Amino acid sequence: MKGGVVAVITILAFFAVVVKPGQAVTCGQVDAALVPCISYLTGQGDSPSAACCSGVKAVKGLAQTTADKRACCNCVKAAANKYANLKDAAAQSLPTKCGVQMDIPISRSVDCDK
């Protein structure tokens, strides 16, 4: 059952992050992409799942322009602040563990305007 739920979330995240050129990035897209990462980011796993890493790659794909990067950064920051038990070290290491070079830090305290 749990595997089926993860599969459904992954599929929804994929469809949610498909953006047509010229459309702004939304927090719904970013949140859907990163939902599979919550267990890793809250210390419930030693490494991020394949679905999580796919979401990280999807967020990177969304953040093409400076405005998109800022939007993604603000969405990630807002999402991170929703989880009091978020492990900062896990959040900061997530892109590296997924093999993705991100221009967007995953942090509660980042200044997204810089």
UniProtKB/TrEMBL annotation:
Segment forming the signal sequence: 1-24
All copies of domain Bifunctional inhibitor/plant lipid transfer protein/seed storage helical, residue ranges: 27-112
SUPFAM superfamilies on file: Bifunctional inhibitor/lipid-transfer protein/seed storage 2S albumin
InterPro entries: Bifun_inhib/LTP/seed_sf (IPR036312), Bifunc_inhib/LTP/seed_store (IPR016140), Plant_nsLTP (IPR000528)
Protein keywords: Lipid-binding, Signal, Transport
Annotated GO biological process: lipid transport
MF (Gene Ontology): lipid binding
The keyword Signal is annotated on this UniProt entry: yes
Coiled-coil annotated spans: none
Entry superkingdom: Eukaryota
Function (record text): Plant non-specific lipid-transfer proteins transfer phospholipids as well as galactolipids across membranes. May play a role in wax or cutin deposition in the cell walls of expanding epidermal cells and certain secretory tissues.
Family: Belongs to the plant LTP family.
Name this polypeptide is given: Non-specific lipid-transfer protein
Organism from which the protein derives: Sesamum alatum
Lineage: Eukaryota, Viridiplantae, Streptophyta, Embryophyta, Tracheophyta
